[in-house]
Amino acid sequence: xxxxxxxxxxxxxxxxxxxxxxxxxxxxxxxxxxxxxxxxxxxxxxxxxxxxxxxxxxxxxxxxxxxxxxxxxxxxxxxxxxxxxxxxxxxxxxxxxxxxxxxxxxxxxxxxxxxxxxxxxxxxxxxxxxxxxxxxxxxxxxxxxxxxxxxxxxxxxxxxxxxxxxxxxxxxxxxxxxxxxxxxxxxxxxxxxxxxxxxxxxxxxxxxxxxxxxxxxxxxxxxxxxxxxxxxxxxxxxxxxxxxxxxxxxxxxxxxxxxxxxxxxxxxxxxxxxxxxxxxxxxxxxxxxxxxxxxxxxxxxxxxxxxxxxxxxxxxxxxxxxxxxxxxxxxxxxxxxxxxxxxxxxxxxxxxxxxxxxxxxxxxxxxxxxxxxxxxxxxxxxxxxxxxxxxxxxxxxxxxxxxxxxxxxxxxxxxxxxxxxxxxxxxxxxxxxxxxxxxxxxxxxxxxxxxxxxxxxxxxxxxxxxxxxxxxxxxxxxxxxxxxxxxxxxxxxxxxxxxxxxxxxxxxxxxxxxxxxxxxxxxxxxxxxxxxxxxxxxxxxxxxxxxxxxxxxxxxxxxxxxxxxxxxxxxxxxxxxxxxxxxxxxxxxxxxxxxxxxxxxxxxxxxxxxxxxxxxxxxxxxxxxxxxxxxxxxxxxxxxxxxxxxxxxxxxxxxxxxxxxxxxxxxxxxxxxxxxxxxxxxxxxxxxxxxxxxxxxxxxxxxxxxxxxxxxxxxxxxxxxxxxxxxxxxxxxxxxxxxxxxxxxxxxxxxxxxxxxxxxxxxxxxxxxxxxxxxxxxxxxxxxxxxxxxxxxxxxxxxxxxxxxxxxxxxxxxxxxxxxxxxxxxxxxxxxxxxxxxxxxxxxxxxxxxxxxxxxxxxxxxxxxxxxxxxxxxxxxxxxxxxxxxxxxxxxxxxxxxxxxxxxxxxxxxxxxxxxxxxxxxxxxxxxxxxxxxxxxxxxxxxxxxxxxxxxxxxxxxxxxxxxxxxxxxxxxxxxxxxxxxxxxxxxxxxxxxxxxxxxxxxxxxxxxxxxxxxxxxxxxxxxxxxxxxxxxxxxxxxxxxxxxxxxxxxxxxxxxxxxxxxxxxxxxxxxxxxxxxxxxxxxxxxxxxxxxxxxxxxxxxxxxxxxxxxxxxxxxxxxxxxxxxxxxxxxxxxxxxxxxxxxxxxxxxxxxxxxxxxxxxxxxxxxxxxxxxxxxxxxxxxxxxxxxxxxxxxxxxxxxxxxxxxxxxxxxxxxxxxxxxxxxxxxxxxxxxxxxxxxxxxxxxxxxxxxxxxxxxxxxxxxxxxxxxxxxxxxxxxxxxxxxxxxxxxxxxxxxxxxxxxxxxxxxxxxxxxxxxxxxxxxxxxxxxxxxxxxxxxxxxxxxxxxxxxxxxxxxxxxxxxxxxxxxxxxxxxxxxxxxxxxxxxxxxxxxxxxxxxxxxxxxxxxxxxxxxxxxxxxxxxxxxxxxxxxxxxxxxxxxxxxxxxxxxxxxxxxxxxxxxxxxxxxxxxxxxxxxxxxxxxxxxxxxxxxxxxxxxxxxxxxxxxxxxxxxxxxxxxxxxxxxxxxxxxxxxxxxxxxxxxxxxxxxxxxxxxxxxxxxxxxxxxxxxxxxxxxxxxxxxxxxxxxxxxxxxxxxxxxxxxxxxxxxxxxxxxxxxxxxxxxxxxxxxxxxxxxxxxxxxxxxxxxxxxxxxxxxxxxxxxxxxxxxxxxxxxxxxxxxxxxxxx
Length: 1687
Description:
The protein is mainly beta. The protein is built from 14 helices and 108 strands. The strands form 42 sheets. The protein has a five-stranded antiparallel β-sheet with strand order 14-12-104-103-102, with no helix packed on it. Strands 19-18-16-93-96 form a five-stranded mixed β-sheet, with no helix packed on it. The chain is elongated and about 190 Å long. The relative contact order is 0.07.
């Protein structure tokens, strides 16, 4: 088979090769003859070119490609179709950005997304809104002419704006109407009528929603048959015709005059004509005739018809005869308002140029030429204004206002301490942190510039100054200002941050002079070594200044003290030391001498040339003794101790002491024979002396081991120069310069002066002595130069401008006198003899009262004669009389100032109240009418609630004689009322105000100066509660009626803050270390904790929270305390050898710790103050040399190990021989060496710097500038602090700063400004009015200062004032005189009401007299157009008509609550139809509604609701709004509560539906739970997750159901046959019996399966024989399954 596979592979290869050959021939065409190659192009590259604009070029790649996507040669593609790879382009440069820009077109209407997609439209359920897209056009254009350009130009600078955006198309909003009103009564009392019920529109149809349903529902009614014939006809009154003038009036007057002229009675005498003319003139003046008030009285008519119940007109005689209504009446001819042309614009209120300031306004007005009369159109606005900016080159710059300040006051520490503890008494000598204050004021910063510019413009206009050039802008560079204080203006003109009125300052603390201890007395020297001829000498001792004081060294005590002495010398020899003792005559031992090592020093102790001491012989050699081998050996003398006294007197002398000790005893006594033997043996020429023979030189007694000498034998007569304080700096007469005066900051140089002081010689403890007692060399100077302080004159601001005089007038219009003020401020206080300030800083004067108080009022003039309808028009009316009847009268009004001066009416139109009425109805009585006078005023009552009051009127004219007029029931002539029983009740209202301190309570500071913000903040105050007064009817009245001033006062307490109080600082403790750097501590204890917002305590100790510590580093001189060892005691030899007096022994000495001074150790102190490691030994064990032994002195000090320490290095100490040994005996080594071990006997040294101390202040300061210090310590390598000289000897680098300045923050209390004046009441009337006042923080608290805990705002209630308002009464019923129906009029009254301003319901109980509202503007709820009557329509019986407009609905938002979509808010009102006759329903008008937008509409939800009718299982379903209002419309039709099926009762449970069989079924996945009545109670999910309780009373549960029993299985896609569901639980919540059976069967089956698995998997047992044959080896078992289940 292998060759077959190879042959197949070969055949396939040949076929592929042939395919390639044929493919080449067919490369250019495919089966259809079309080319398989085409040209591809890449994107255009960047436009390139040397010039900007259209001269650029750009290129792109072009290649040939195959349809399968791979690239091939260009020759395979058609060359004639090759695209161009280059083109011209517009090269964009950066400056093109200003020439081109995107032009954005408007957004097109929103188009639904579904309408733009292809394919069949999908069903869409709108919920909130439908998604849409709106587009627009975006083009690149040239800005200059809006011509189009390439988009690439604009895209070079900015990305092309988007062309599409998402939008939302609102869902159609169906009309929503309210629930029906109750049924009206039947339109007829008998026969067949109609009942109506109506509803109103709540939401209009929007966005294509369904129209509103019928707002009216009709129902026929029949109360019973009519007893007689029904009234079929009614008298209907038509509308009044427009008012017109009688057309024949002019002709009739001319005719009448012509007739009178031809008659004999037409002539009148001259006297009568003159009287008539005067009367007409008087009437004309009284009427204030004006073309603006031209009111023409005309007439109008109306029709009266008789109509049938079916609305058809019938003859007039069919209507029941009754009194005919009025068909003609007088009227005012309507004339529209006419206004004149606009006046020119007024000058701009802003008269200066500054773009940063807000613009001004300009106004223009126009006059009213004709006021509207009748029903003419109202006047338009007669004034308007618009923003403006001043124009022109001559506009001045605006005034610039800026804050200015006076100079800071002197720094005062008492201002700061006074606010911390007012009980602090001693405030003198304080320093450190303080406060300084200043005043701030506002000035016009460019006043000089504006004055210069103004003068420049005036001169330029007048031509008084010739200039070479005339710049358009004044040459500001040439302005020179005289530096003066600017004039203060109102602070309200200045903006921006207000400068600080106070600031912390630093009052330098005086530095006390500190001096070192006195040095030792120097040698006796001449007063002046330059003149040693004087015999007087002095010993001097000095001390130096360790801390430079404030003011220089002159404030330090004397630094030199002198002591007279004898034998002075300027130079002397100083003993440096003694050489070793050299025996005389070159003997090995015995007496000898010691040469003195000396040097020549001057009086100051400095070495000088020895030739200067040639006049004084040097010290002689000192006699000494070199012990022989058997002599007693003594140590060297110790140095002389410190002199016990600094001077000597008759009773006290100074003493010094020195000691020495016995180092070895001499040899013992010998016999004479021994002496002779020694003489012979030694070959002595003489017999040795006894001491020599008997044992050598003997030791001296103990008293000889100590020497005492006198010291400081000079008398205690110490002198020094004492200086007094420097006197004041006075002018030096020799100085040529004069003292200048400083006008400001002190730039002028003041002259120099001289200061003197007193210098005297003082003897210590005695007093002043003659100057010759003190040496002249250290005498201080008595005169020194000084700088004279510059005089500072008082500098003040000029007086401010006078405050404006307010135009204050009382209620009667009389001017009230007021005052105006001006002030000036002290900018610089005088000092150093400068000019003093004047005393007057404020001035006041009386204001000139205004000639006319501002205000305008209307003045109404006398009513004219009542005008009737012309007689020729009404003479045909039955019962009409020519000179009586209803008419109309007019009057004129004028505008007056408060003083009565007449002004243009435009002033009253703008500022006055509503214009009085120009016309009114009138009645001219006829002869038969009764005429009565007006009612008089009611009589006065003697007291409230007592008696009655009456008013009267009387018959006038002919009425007195008519009987019908005497009928007092028809025409009462008197009225009686009970006297008003006004009872008032006062009661509190509202909350208590804040606790308010009395006005004007300012606290004075300790020094009597008023400190900024130092206002009384605590103590007893008062709180207020408003009082309200009601009358007996519960109406609010003025509080004065209740004899109350409007408040209840109650005392209250504002607790005063108490600051934290600490004790004074304790004394500083002793430095913790006696050598080097340590710490010292002081503390304060808490005396009183803060409360009520007092100044808090500093951070206390963590342990007891009651102590404040301050720890600072300190430096202790390591040589301050030294160990002083007394001489060693006499040897106590343990093995006593009386012959030899030598051997092992012990020496002791006393070691004490003593205070070291410059003169040496002075007094013993406690041992712990000295370094225990340096303590000398108090006892030593050693061997006392025997006679003839070598005796060495004590070891000298160890030499210092060279650094760095190393064991290879060593140190040595040496001793020298005091007594040479006898022959044969050797001296021990005189040198001892030991290796240098680190921290054993060799130490390295380094500097250690301590931490910074706390900020240290002067003792007189409590805060402010201080110093932080740290110490430099020399530390040994083992950590021990040693004397600083060890580090200084090594010249280690000191790279640390030891002192830095610091600041202790001053505890500044919060400073508050004074309270502002009380604000205006928040409400002009009512119960809730409040007044506020506030204050601000002038100085915020700093450090531990008292915080700003007080309230910044306080309030108190306003006195309660009644709120009066004009309010309409309800409209009356439509009145059509005495007829039944037609056009009529309804009326309402304008009534004054009172309320408490709480906004509650306005009830009629608040009605009061109209006089109380007389001061209010005539308007109702802001509407100035008062309408007290309006036309109405009274429907005739049987007529179908429109109701009145419903009230405006609440504002409803068109929204989707869950989606957050809102399409605006709307409110609506509607007019429903009412019908009275069933026959006239076809004649009913259409219902109408109107809507308007509104704001802040509420977004409602609409849900289906259902309930059962009483005593019925049939439910009723309705739609309810989320506010509980039942509506029609709004609920989604896709989610009804019930189906339209015939299930009875309907299917209410969720997931249920009504089947075609009329049964309620559950959807798939749910099972039915039935009630006890067999109805569907709920649909339970399967499987059941919640087990019902045993108490559940529900009925049985079906275990299976069909999806739809009426359909075949083929109509249910995805299902085959029925779907069954098992329910294991019964209605009682327990498992059913079949569940237990299934469980038992499953358990048996499980046991069976497990058993079978076990049997199948169990290994069978093999026979014993087989096991032996396999040699105990097991073979796998192979089973073959033949399908038998028995396996």
